[in-house]
Amino acid sequence: MTAVTDLRFQIAPGGALRGRLRVPGDKSISHRSIMLSAIAEGESRIAGFLEGADALATLTAFRRMGVEIDGPDAGRVRVHGVGLRGLRAPDGPLDMGNSGTSMRLLAGLLAGQSFPVTLTGDASLSRRPMRRVTEPLALMGAHIGTTADGTAPLVIEPVPHLTGIDYRLTVPSAQVKSSLLLAGLYAGGETGVTEPAPTRDHTERMLTAFGYPVRRQGARACLNGGGRLRGCQLQIPADISSAAFFLAGASIAPGSDLLLEEVGINPTRVGVINILRGMGADIELLDRRTLGGEPVADIRVRTARLKGIRIPVDQVPLAIDEFPAIFIAAACAEGETILTGAEELRVKESDRIQVMADGLTRLGILAEPLPDGIRIVGGEFGSTAGGEPIDAHSDHRIAMSFAIAGLRASGSVTIRDCANVETSFPGFVELAAGVGLGIEASGA
Ligand code: S3P
Protein backbone atom coordinates (compact mmCIF):
# COMPACT_ATOMS: atom_id res chain seq x y z
CA MET A 1 0.00 0.00 0.00
CA THR A 2 2.90 2.30 0.69
CA ALA A 3 5.02 3.67 -2.13
CA VAL A 4 8.48 3.85 -0.58
CA THR A 5 9.45 0.41 0.67
CA ASP A 6 12.72 1.36 2.29
CA LEU A 7 11.91 4.57 4.03
CA ARG A 8 14.70 5.17 6.55
CA PHE A 9 14.79 7.16 9.77
CA GLN A 10 18.03 8.80 10.86
CA ILE A 11 18.14 9.91 14.47
CA ALA A 12 20.73 12.33 15.77
CA PRO A 13 21.70 11.25 19.29
CA GLY A 14 20.54 12.99 22.46
CA GLY A 15 17.98 15.71 23.04
CA ALA A 16 15.00 16.09 25.31
CA LEU A 17 11.25 15.91 24.58
CA ARG A 18 9.55 19.13 25.63
CA GLY A 19 6.29 20.95 24.89
CA ARG A 20 2.87 19.58 24.08
CA LEU A 21 1.34 17.55 21.30
CA ARG A 22 -1.73 15.63 20.31
CA VAL A 23 -0.94 12.32 18.67
CA PRO A 24 -3.41 11.13 15.99
CA GLY A 25 -6.73 9.44 16.69
CA ASP A 26 -7.03 5.98 18.18
CA LYS A 27 -6.63 3.27 15.55
CA SER A 28 -8.86 0.65 17.17
CA ILE A 29 -11.66 3.17 17.69
CA SER A 30 -11.27 4.63 14.19
CA HIS A 31 -11.78 1.20 12.58
CA ARG A 32 -14.88 0.56 14.65
CA SER A 33 -16.30 4.03 13.99
CA ILE A 34 -16.44 3.29 10.26
CA MET A 35 -17.70 -0.26 10.62
CA LEU A 36 -20.56 0.58 12.97
CA SER A 37 -21.60 3.80 11.28
CA ALA A 38 -21.69 1.99 7.90
CA ILE A 39 -24.20 -0.57 9.16
CA ALA A 40 -26.16 1.94 11.23
CA GLU A 41 -29.33 3.62 10.06
CA GLY A 42 -28.90 7.29 9.22
CA GLU A 43 -25.93 9.59 9.23
CA SER A 44 -22.96 9.46 11.60
CA ARG A 45 -20.40 12.19 12.08
CA ILE A 46 -16.95 11.25 13.28
CA ALA A 47 -14.24 13.64 14.48
CA GLY A 48 -10.64 12.79 15.30
CA PHE A 49 -10.52 9.88 12.82
CA LEU A 50 -7.05 8.44 12.24
CA GLU A 51 -6.08 9.10 8.63
CA GLY A 52 -3.54 6.28 8.62
CA ALA A 53 -3.37 3.49 6.07
CA ASP A 54 -4.95 0.84 8.35
CA ALA A 55 -8.10 2.78 9.20
CA LEU A 56 -8.30 4.00 5.60
CA ALA A 57 -8.29 0.36 4.43
CA THR A 58 -11.43 -0.16 6.49
CA LEU A 59 -13.00 3.03 5.14
CA THR A 60 -12.24 2.08 1.53
CA ALA A 61 -13.68 -1.40 2.05
CA PHE A 62 -17.04 0.04 3.09
CA ARG A 63 -17.04 2.52 0.21
CA ARG A 64 -16.54 -0.42 -2.09
CA MET A 65 -19.54 -2.10 -0.47
CA GLY A 66 -21.72 0.83 -1.45
CA VAL A 67 -21.53 3.05 1.63
CA GLU A 68 -21.36 6.76 0.91
CA ILE A 69 -18.60 8.30 3.03
CA ASP A 70 -17.56 11.98 2.97
CA GLY A 71 -13.99 12.73 4.03
CA PRO A 72 -11.77 12.20 5.83
CA ASP A 73 -11.07 15.89 6.07
CA ALA A 74 -8.83 16.89 8.98
CA GLY A 75 -10.12 13.88 10.90
CA ARG A 76 -13.77 14.54 10.12
CA VAL A 77 -15.78 11.83 8.38
CA ARG A 78 -19.48 11.69 7.57
CA VAL A 79 -20.92 8.23 6.96
CA HIS A 80 -24.32 7.65 5.40
CA GLY A 81 -25.24 4.38 7.08
CA VAL A 82 -27.02 1.73 5.05
CA GLY A 83 -28.41 -0.36 7.92
CA LEU A 84 -27.50 -3.92 8.91
CA ARG A 85 -28.69 -5.37 5.60
CA GLY A 86 -27.71 -2.56 3.24
CA LEU A 87 -24.14 -3.49 2.22
CA ARG A 88 -23.61 -4.49 -1.41
CA ALA A 89 -21.17 -6.92 -3.02
CA PRO A 90 -17.86 -5.19 -3.86
CA ASP A 91 -16.54 -5.47 -7.43
CA GLY A 92 -13.52 -7.54 -6.36
CA PRO A 93 -11.40 -8.56 -3.35
CA LEU A 94 -11.11 -6.07 -0.50
CA ASP A 95 -7.49 -5.21 0.33
CA MET A 96 -6.88 -4.86 4.06
CA GLY A 97 -3.23 -3.87 3.56
CA ASN A 98 -1.26 -4.34 6.79
CA SER A 99 -4.30 -4.23 9.04
CA GLY A 100 -5.11 -7.24 11.21
CA THR A 101 -7.98 -5.38 12.86
CA SER A 102 -9.66 -4.70 9.50
CA MET A 103 -9.34 -8.30 8.40
CA ARG A 104 -10.41 -10.03 11.60
CA LEU A 105 -13.30 -7.71 12.42
CA LEU A 106 -14.58 -7.67 8.85
CA ALA A 107 -14.45 -11.48 8.72
CA GLY A 108 -17.11 -11.42 11.43
CA LEU A 109 -19.12 -8.51 10.09
CA LEU A 110 -19.20 -9.96 6.57
CA ALA A 111 -19.79 -13.63 7.51
CA GLY A 112 -23.56 -13.10 7.58
CA GLN A 113 -23.97 -11.03 4.39
CA SER A 114 -25.89 -12.27 1.36
CA PHE A 115 -22.92 -11.87 -1.02
CA PRO A 116 -19.48 -13.47 -1.35
CA VAL A 117 -16.42 -11.39 -0.55
CA THR A 118 -12.68 -12.02 -0.39
CA LEU A 119 -10.33 -10.25 2.02
CA THR A 120 -6.65 -9.94 1.07
CA GLY A 121 -3.66 -8.34 2.79
CA ASP A 122 -0.01 -7.47 2.36
CA ALA A 123 2.86 -9.93 2.93
CA SER A 124 2.88 -9.41 6.72
CA LEU A 125 -0.91 -9.71 7.12
CA SER A 126 -0.92 -12.78 4.87
CA ARG A 127 1.33 -14.55 7.38
CA ARG A 128 -0.81 -13.83 10.43
CA PRO A 129 -3.08 -16.48 12.00
CA MET A 130 -6.73 -16.23 10.95
CA ARG A 131 -8.14 -19.52 12.30
CA ARG A 132 -8.66 -17.81 15.63
CA VAL A 133 -11.59 -16.03 13.91
CA THR A 134 -12.57 -18.45 11.14
CA GLU A 135 -12.99 -21.43 13.50
CA PRO A 136 -15.46 -19.84 15.93
CA LEU A 137 -17.23 -18.13 13.02
CA ALA A 138 -17.63 -21.60 11.44
CA LEU A 139 -19.30 -22.72 14.67
CA MET A 140 -21.84 -19.96 14.02
CA GLY A 141 -22.44 -21.40 10.55
CA ALA A 142 -20.09 -19.17 8.53
CA HIS A 143 -18.23 -20.42 5.43
CA ILE A 144 -14.81 -18.79 5.33
CA GLY A 145 -11.93 -20.32 3.40
CA THR A 146 -8.27 -19.71 4.26
CA THR A 147 -5.01 -21.08 2.87
CA ALA A 148 -3.91 -24.48 4.15
CA ASP A 149 -1.89 -22.61 6.79
CA GLY A 150 -4.98 -20.82 8.10
CA THR A 151 -3.92 -17.48 6.64
CA ALA A 152 -5.42 -14.89 4.25
CA PRO A 153 -6.90 -14.53 1.70
CA LEU A 154 -10.19 -15.09 3.48
CA VAL A 155 -12.86 -16.24 1.06
CA ILE A 156 -16.26 -15.57 2.63
CA GLU A 157 -19.27 -17.34 1.10
CA PRO A 158 -22.83 -16.35 1.92
CA VAL A 159 -24.77 -18.76 4.14
CA PRO A 160 -28.55 -18.90 4.77
CA HIS A 161 -28.17 -17.83 8.39
CA LEU A 162 -25.78 -17.61 11.34
CA THR A 163 -26.58 -18.90 14.80
CA GLY A 164 -25.35 -17.35 18.04
CA ILE A 165 -22.78 -19.29 20.06
CA ASP A 166 -21.28 -19.06 23.50
CA TYR A 167 -17.55 -18.96 22.98
CA ARG A 168 -14.60 -18.92 25.35
CA LEU A 169 -11.56 -17.25 23.77
CA THR A 170 -8.39 -19.33 23.77
CA VAL A 171 -6.16 -16.23 23.50
CA PRO A 172 -7.09 -12.89 25.02
CA SER A 173 -7.88 -11.04 21.79
CA ALA A 174 -10.12 -8.04 21.29
CA GLN A 175 -10.04 -8.69 17.57
CA VAL A 176 -11.53 -12.17 17.98
CA LYS A 177 -14.06 -10.98 20.57
CA SER A 178 -15.12 -8.12 18.30
CA SER A 179 -15.29 -10.32 15.22
CA LEU A 180 -17.72 -12.68 16.96
CA LEU A 181 -19.85 -9.88 18.39
CA LEU A 182 -20.10 -8.28 14.95
CA ALA A 183 -21.11 -11.63 13.43
CA GLY A 184 -23.58 -11.91 16.31
CA LEU A 185 -25.42 -8.82 15.00
CA TYR A 186 -26.47 -11.02 12.07
CA ALA A 187 -27.02 -14.24 14.01
CA GLY A 188 -30.14 -15.81 15.44
CA GLY A 189 -30.30 -15.76 19.24
CA GLU A 190 -27.55 -14.72 21.61
CA THR A 191 -23.82 -14.54 20.88
CA GLY A 192 -21.63 -14.55 23.98
CA VAL A 193 -17.85 -14.24 24.25
CA THR A 194 -15.94 -14.97 27.44
CA GLU A 195 -12.37 -13.72 27.67
CA PRO A 196 -9.58 -15.24 29.76
CA ALA A 197 -8.32 -11.72 30.61
CA PRO A 198 -9.79 -8.29 29.93
CA THR A 199 -9.07 -6.95 26.43
CA ARG A 200 -9.97 -3.60 24.86
CA ASP A 201 -13.73 -3.09 24.99
CA HIS A 202 -14.18 -0.43 22.30
CA THR A 203 -16.61 -2.57 20.30
CA GLU A 204 -18.92 -3.04 23.27
CA ARG A 205 -18.76 0.64 24.19
CA MET A 206 -19.37 1.81 20.65
CA LEU A 207 -22.26 -0.56 20.01
CA THR A 208 -23.87 0.97 23.08
CA ALA A 209 -23.24 4.46 21.68
CA PHE A 210 -25.07 3.38 18.50
CA GLY A 211 -28.03 2.28 20.63
CA TYR A 212 -27.36 -1.47 20.33
CA PRO A 213 -27.78 -3.36 23.62
CA VAL A 214 -24.66 -5.22 24.76
CA ARG A 215 -24.61 -7.01 28.09
CA ARG A 216 -21.51 -7.56 30.19
CA GLN A 217 -21.59 -10.36 32.79
CA GLY A 218 -18.17 -10.56 34.42
CA ALA A 219 -15.74 -11.77 31.75
CA ARG A 220 -18.56 -12.40 29.26
CA ALA A 221 -19.94 -9.91 26.73
CA CYS A 222 -23.07 -10.84 24.82
CA LEU A 223 -25.69 -9.48 22.47
CA ASN A 224 -28.70 -10.64 20.51
CA GLY A 225 -28.82 -10.52 16.73
CA GLY A 226 -31.31 -8.68 14.60
CA GLY A 227 -31.37 -5.30 16.33
CA ARG A 228 -30.67 -1.87 14.84
CA LEU A 229 -27.82 0.61 15.12
CA ARG A 230 -28.72 4.27 14.97
CA GLY A 231 -26.29 6.78 13.45
CA CYS A 232 -24.58 9.03 16.00
CA GLN A 233 -21.77 11.52 16.57
CA LEU A 234 -18.39 10.22 17.68
CA GLN A 235 -15.29 12.00 18.92
CA ILE A 236 -12.19 9.80 18.79
CA PRO A 237 -9.48 10.30 21.46
CA ALA A 238 -5.76 10.42 20.72
CA ASP A 239 -4.24 6.94 20.54
CA ILE A 240 -2.48 5.77 23.70
CA SER A 241 -0.55 3.32 21.51
CA SER A 242 0.96 6.27 19.62
CA ALA A 243 1.40 8.27 22.83
CA ALA A 244 3.41 5.31 24.18
CA PHE A 245 6.51 6.26 22.17
CA PHE A 246 6.49 9.67 23.82
CA LEU A 247 5.76 8.27 27.27
CA ALA A 248 8.83 6.07 26.96
CA GLY A 249 10.89 8.71 25.13
CA ALA A 250 10.27 11.50 27.63
CA SER A 251 10.92 9.09 30.51
CA ILE A 252 14.39 8.16 29.20
CA ALA A 253 15.60 11.49 27.75
CA PRO A 254 17.16 13.77 30.39
CA GLY A 255 15.45 17.15 30.77
CA SER A 256 12.14 16.06 29.23
CA ASP A 257 8.75 17.47 30.18
CA LEU A 258 5.97 16.71 27.74
CA LEU A 259 2.20 17.08 27.71
CA LEU A 260 0.23 14.63 25.57
CA GLU A 261 -3.25 15.95 24.92
CA GLU A 262 -6.59 14.16 25.01
CA VAL A 263 -5.21 10.63 25.17
CA GLY A 264 -7.60 7.70 25.56
CA ILE A 265 -7.13 6.07 28.96
CA ASN A 266 -9.67 3.27 28.67
CA PRO A 267 -8.80 0.87 31.56
CA THR A 268 -8.28 -1.93 29.01
CA ARG A 269 -5.49 0.08 27.33
CA VAL A 270 -3.46 1.60 30.16
CA GLY A 271 -0.93 -1.19 30.70
CA VAL A 272 1.83 1.02 29.31
CA ILE A 273 1.19 3.63 32.00
CA ASN A 274 1.01 1.01 34.75
CA ILE A 275 4.19 -0.73 33.60
CA LEU A 276 6.22 2.46 33.12
CA ARG A 277 5.05 3.72 36.51
CA GLY A 278 6.09 0.38 37.97
CA MET A 279 9.55 1.10 36.57
CA GLY A 280 9.55 4.50 38.27
CA ALA A 281 8.25 6.73 35.47
CA ASP A 282 6.87 10.16 36.32
CA ILE A 283 3.49 10.14 34.56
CA GLU A 284 0.57 12.30 35.64
CA LEU A 285 -2.99 12.09 34.33
CA LEU A 286 -4.53 15.57 34.19
CA ASP A 287 -8.03 16.79 33.46
CA ARG A 288 -9.67 13.39 33.20
CA ARG A 289 -12.90 13.51 31.23
CA THR A 290 -15.06 11.44 28.87
CA LEU A 291 -15.00 11.82 25.10
CA GLY A 292 -17.42 9.84 22.91
CA GLY A 293 -18.00 7.21 25.59
CA GLU A 294 -14.26 6.76 26.24
CA PRO A 295 -12.23 8.12 29.19
CA VAL A 296 -9.44 10.56 28.21
CA ALA A 297 -6.84 12.68 29.98
CA ASP A 298 -3.94 14.98 29.23
CA ILE A 299 -0.81 13.10 30.20
CA ARG A 300 2.25 14.86 31.59
CA VAL A 301 5.47 12.87 31.50
CA ARG A 302 8.84 13.93 32.83
CA THR A 303 12.26 12.29 32.86
CA ALA A 304 12.73 9.71 35.57
CA ARG A 305 15.27 7.18 36.76
CA LEU A 306 13.83 3.88 35.66
CA LYS A 307 14.50 0.52 37.23
CA GLY A 308 14.00 -2.91 35.70
CA ILE A 309 10.99 -4.95 36.81
CA ARG A 310 9.28 -8.25 36.26
CA ILE A 311 6.29 -7.14 34.22
CA PRO A 312 3.04 -8.35 35.85
CA VAL A 313 1.37 -10.90 33.57
CA ASP A 314 -2.05 -9.31 34.10
CA GLN A 315 -0.76 -6.18 32.35
CA VAL A 316 0.14 -8.02 29.13
CA PRO A 317 -3.22 -7.75 27.30
CA LEU A 318 -3.54 -4.14 28.52
CA ALA A 319 -0.21 -3.18 26.92
CA ILE A 320 -0.07 -5.61 24.03
CA ASP A 321 0.78 -3.02 21.35
CA GLU A 322 3.10 -0.95 23.54
CA PHE A 323 5.80 -3.50 24.33
CA PRO A 324 8.26 -2.31 21.68
CA ALA A 325 8.28 1.13 23.36
CA ILE A 326 8.37 -0.43 26.83
CA PHE A 327 11.41 -2.50 25.80
CA ILE A 328 13.27 0.69 24.90
CA ALA A 329 12.50 2.07 28.36
CA ALA A 330 13.64 -1.24 29.89
CA ALA A 331 16.92 -1.00 28.00
CA CYS A 332 17.55 2.38 29.71
CA ALA A 333 16.50 1.15 33.16
CA GLU A 334 18.79 0.06 35.92
CA GLY A 335 18.85 -3.73 36.20
CA GLU A 336 16.85 -6.43 34.54
CA THR A 337 13.34 -6.40 33.07
CA ILE A 338 11.60 -9.69 32.42
CA LEU A 339 8.45 -10.17 30.38
CA THR A 340 6.67 -13.52 30.13
CA GLY A 341 3.18 -14.59 29.06
CA ALA A 342 3.37 -12.51 25.90
CA GLU A 343 3.73 -15.09 23.11
CA GLU A 344 1.12 -13.08 21.14
CA LEU A 345 3.90 -10.60 20.39
CA ARG A 346 5.35 -13.16 18.00
CA VAL A 347 2.32 -12.92 15.67
CA LYS A 348 1.89 -9.16 15.43
CA GLU A 349 2.91 -7.13 12.34
CA SER A 350 6.32 -8.75 12.90
CA ASP A 351 7.67 -11.18 15.49
CA ARG A 352 8.08 -8.34 17.97
CA ILE A 353 10.08 -10.40 20.47
CA GLN A 354 12.74 -11.45 17.97
CA VAL A 355 12.82 -8.20 16.00
CA MET A 356 13.14 -6.07 19.15
CA ALA A 357 15.79 -8.40 20.58
CA ASP A 358 17.78 -8.13 17.33
CA GLY A 359 17.57 -4.33 17.28
CA LEU A 360 18.45 -3.97 20.96
CA THR A 361 21.41 -6.31 20.48
CA ARG A 362 22.48 -4.22 17.49
CA LEU A 363 22.56 -1.23 19.89
CA GLY A 364 24.69 -3.12 22.39
CA ILE A 365 21.98 -4.07 24.89
CA LEU A 366 21.74 -7.54 26.38
CA ALA A 367 18.33 -8.75 25.20
CA GLU A 368 17.48 -12.41 25.43
CA PRO A 369 14.34 -13.58 23.62
CA LEU A 370 12.22 -16.07 25.56
CA PRO A 371 9.54 -18.25 23.96
CA ASP A 372 6.83 -16.00 25.42
CA GLY A 373 8.69 -12.82 26.26
CA ILE A 374 12.10 -11.28 26.71
CA ARG A 375 14.80 -10.52 29.28
CA ILE A 376 16.44 -7.12 28.91
CA VAL A 377 19.38 -5.89 30.96
CA GLY A 378 19.54 -2.11 31.13
CA GLY A 379 22.67 -0.51 29.69
CA GLU A 380 23.92 2.22 27.35
CA PHE A 381 22.74 2.39 23.75
CA GLY A 382 25.52 2.43 21.17
CA SER A 383 24.95 3.60 17.62
CA THR A 384 24.49 2.19 14.13
CA ALA A 385 26.99 4.67 12.62
CA GLY A 386 29.33 2.95 10.20
CA GLY A 387 27.38 -0.33 10.28
CA GLU A 388 24.12 -1.95 9.33
CA PRO A 389 20.93 -0.03 10.18
CA ILE A 390 18.34 -1.51 12.51
CA ASP A 391 15.72 -3.41 10.54
CA ALA A 392 12.12 -2.47 11.41
CA HIS A 393 10.80 -5.39 9.33
CA SER A 394 7.99 -3.18 7.96
CA ASP A 395 6.55 -2.95 11.48
CA HIS A 396 5.40 0.57 12.37
CA ARG A 397 5.81 0.16 16.11
CA ILE A 398 9.33 -1.25 15.81
CA ALA A 399 10.38 1.71 13.66
CA MET A 400 9.00 4.31 16.09
CA SER A 401 10.43 2.53 19.13
CA PHE A 402 13.97 2.55 17.81
CA ALA A 403 13.50 6.17 16.75
CA ILE A 404 13.03 7.16 20.40
CA ALA A 405 16.00 5.00 21.42
CA GLY A 406 18.07 7.62 19.57
CA LEU A 407 17.40 9.98 22.50
CA ARG A 408 19.86 7.96 24.58
CA ALA A 409 22.22 6.65 21.88
CA SER A 410 25.96 7.33 21.84
CA GLY A 411 25.87 8.20 18.11
CA SER A 412 23.43 8.32 15.22
CA VAL A 413 20.85 5.58 14.78
CA THR A 414 19.52 4.56 11.38
CA ILE A 415 16.42 2.41 10.98
CA ARG A 416 15.37 0.84 7.71
CA ASP A 417 11.97 -0.29 6.38
CA CYS A 418 9.95 2.37 8.21
CA ALA A 419 7.28 3.18 5.60
CA ASN A 420 4.53 1.40 7.53
CA VAL A 421 4.67 4.04 10.26
CA GLU A 422 2.04 5.53 7.98
CA THR A 423 -0.37 2.72 8.97
CA SER A 424 -0.91 4.06 12.48
CA PHE A 425 0.90 7.36 12.88
CA PRO A 426 0.87 9.68 9.88
CA GLY A 427 3.02 12.74 10.64
CA PHE A 428 5.17 10.96 13.22
CA VAL A 429 8.43 12.45 11.95
CA GLU A 430 7.16 16.04 12.02
CA LEU A 431 5.42 15.69 15.39
CA ALA A 432 8.40 13.99 17.01
CA ALA A 433 10.82 16.55 15.56
CA GLY A 434 8.54 19.33 16.83
CA VAL A 435 9.02 18.23 20.45
CA GLY A 436 12.76 17.64 20.21
CA LEU A 437 13.62 14.31 18.56
CA GLY A 438 16.46 14.75 16.05
CA ILE A 439 14.74 12.70 13.36
CA GLU A 440 14.91 12.83 9.58
CA ALA A 441 13.30 10.53 7.06
CA SER A 442 14.71 9.61 3.67
CA GLY A 443 13.56 7.28 0.93
CA ALA A 444 16.29 4.85 -0.09
C1 S3P B 1 -6.83 -4.62 18.40
C2 S3P B 1 -6.58 -5.69 19.23
C3 S3P B 1 -5.23 -6.20 19.50
C4 S3P B 1 -4.17 -5.19 19.10
C5 S3P B 1 -4.43 -4.59 17.75
C6 S3P B 1 -5.75 -3.87 17.75
C7 S3P B 1 -8.22 -4.19 18.18
O1 S3P B 1 -5.01 -7.36 18.73
O2 S3P B 1 -2.89 -5.79 19.13
O3 S3P B 1 -3.41 -3.68 17.41
O4 S3P B 1 -8.43 -3.07 17.67
O5 S3P B 1 -9.13 -4.94 18.53
P1 S3P B 1 -5.35 -8.84 19.29
O6 S3P B 1 -6.83 -8.94 19.36
O7 S3P B 1 -4.75 -9.78 18.28
O8 S3P B 1 -4.70 -8.92 20.64
User: And the CATH topology of the largest domain?
Assistant: UDP-n-acetylglucosamine1-carboxyvinyl-transferase, Chain
- Computed over alpha carbons, the radius of gyration is 21 Å
What is the average of the pLDDT values? 97
CATH second-level architecture of the largest domain: Alpha-beta prism
Helical content class: 25-40%
The structural domain count equals: 2
Count, helices: 13
| CATH homolog superfamily of the largest domain | Enolpyruvate transferase domain
Describe this structure in words.
There is one protein chain. By secondary structure, the chain is an alpha/beta fold. It has two domains: 8-25 and 237-442, UDP-n-acetylglucosamine1-carboxyvinyl-transferase, Chain (Alpha-beta prism), CATH 3.65.10.10; 27-235, Alpha-beta prism (UDP-n-acetylglucosamine1-carboxyvinyl-transferase, Chain), CATH 3.65.10.10. Helix content is 28%, strand content 26%. The chain is built from 13 helices and 25 strands. The chain has helices at 27-38, 53-64, 100-111, 131-139, 174-184, 202-209, 240-252, 271-278, 323-331, 352-362, 396-405, 421-424, 428-434; strands spanning 7-11, 18-21, 41-47, 68-73, 76-82, 94-95, 117-120, 143-145, 154-157, 162-163, 166-168, 187-188, 190-194, 215-217, 220-224, 233-235, 257-264, 282-291, 294-302, 336-339, 366-370, 373-377, 390-391, 413-416, 439-443. Strands 23-24-1-25 form a four-stranded mixed beta sheet. Strands 2-17-19-18 form a four-stranded mixed beta sheet. Strand 21 and strand 22 form a beta hairpin. The chain is globular and about 60 Å long. The two termini are 17 Å apart. Bound molecules: shikimate-3-phosphate (S3P). The site of shikimate-3-phosphate has 10 residues, from helix 5. 3-phosphoshikimate binds at residues 27-28, 32, 173, 175, 321, 348.
